[in-house]
């Protein structure tokens, strides 16, 4: 057998094998004290564990005869850091194990990190001796698992506390919204550090108490960059951007989070231009900065700009996209139906670890489905998410089928999801109702709407009502849809009434359309689209005088409907078409093509389905 040599920074004397044993041992010899040798051994084991060489670390550990509690703690901690909690516990439970309070605390912390809070709690109460770190560790464990009251009870039972104890429990209370309780404890503190003050500033800000946060910020004896960032974040989150910017400009020093906080604040409050200005003057940007700008552009419907920013980021030295970057830029491709760009980004993803990310794969599924590539989207859903399909993935695939009118596939996928025990949420039912609406499955749609009303865990959303009205509207059940909206009372929104108005337009029902239009114009008097639809309905019904009156009202109010726009990618060129625009170089040819298609569609409508199938086969 080949002998493994460990090059340690001191002398190791290999002893001959004992006649009764096949194990060779190593004894420490050095001109320095034994405790120094053990300390160096400790460093070697720690370094091996840190580098993931846990097997080598254990061999070194086993070959050392004189082991103190520090060595045992290091080896146990090494296992825990490598996620090997069972091996750590086996070593911890050995009869010859030398354990002190640090060893016990490390094991408790290991269980907490692996989300085994009950085991951590059991071990904590078995500890023969606890110090303040042990208590702090257990309190933090409760906090991480959302057990705020248990954390507070344990804090109150502590025999002694340090500033970390106070900061841990104050942070816990702040995070669950118990700001007043946190403030009471903060006021009781005899000794506070910058973390204590900053935690309270952030807590007040997060809960909308910006004035209290600023008063506390002004009282701080010492501030660091995190304190300033917390106050700026508070202003930004509460829409007070001028005050946030003023504080940002007064900062004695700024770090990357300072800049990112301001840029994100502007974007979240719809101030894209101001975010751009700040972005442009930043000398150094990280992936969060670039992703924030991409998100801003996508949210403002400027997906092309988002793609340009992505390309610029790739050109920047040393910057690599993260999960958020890929999800955002794929969203931009989805909005543009940019299949070529999406495929290029997919190639980049395939060379990274993010190809296994559920969020990224879900974004890819969404991109392919929005670009009309349902086959690829379904293949990714089946293969790419075989091990970890989450609710987002299921909802995305159901929505994809719904968007393209494949209602049976959407419903079958929902049934499969139910059989596997995946609970549906509000988004799932939006997809199902949309699927039913696009293919006229009225009864199925009403059944799913009834399920929403019966399911206490799902909150009825405006989207659900809009889908239901759209479903009834497409099926010509306009009076029924009108009564449903009337039953909603003040909760009926512009979106819901708009869905019914579209149905009235399709079926040429000007009488109900007029009532619906009146409802919409009460909510939004400047809605040009409503006037335009109502005028078209009157014209379709031969009511030319009423149609002219509506058009005259539009003119008097100075309203003009935004022309419809569509585009298609041919080769590497994007062709844009706007209603009424005759500037396209192939306008006449396209006109003849559309006339030809229109004629064929009319013929198809008059042709029996059996004949159509024969024609397709031919």
Automatic annotation (TrEMBL):
Q: Which GO terms describe its molecular function?
A: endonuclease activity; RNA binding
Q: Which residues cross the membrane?
A: none
**Gene3D superfamilies documented for this protein:** Tetratricopeptide repeat domain
GO BP annotation list:
plant organ development; RNA modification
Give yes or no: UniProt keyword ATP-binding.
no
Q: Where are the PPR repeats?
A: 68-98, 100-130, 131-165, 193-223, 224-258, 286-321, 390-424, 527-561
NCBIfam families recorded: PPR
What is the official name of this protein in its record? Answer: Structure-specific endonuclease subunit SLX1
Organism, by scientific name, is Vigna unguiculata
Q: What is the lineage of its organism?
A: Eukaryota, Viridiplantae, Streptophyta, Embryophyta, Tracheophyta
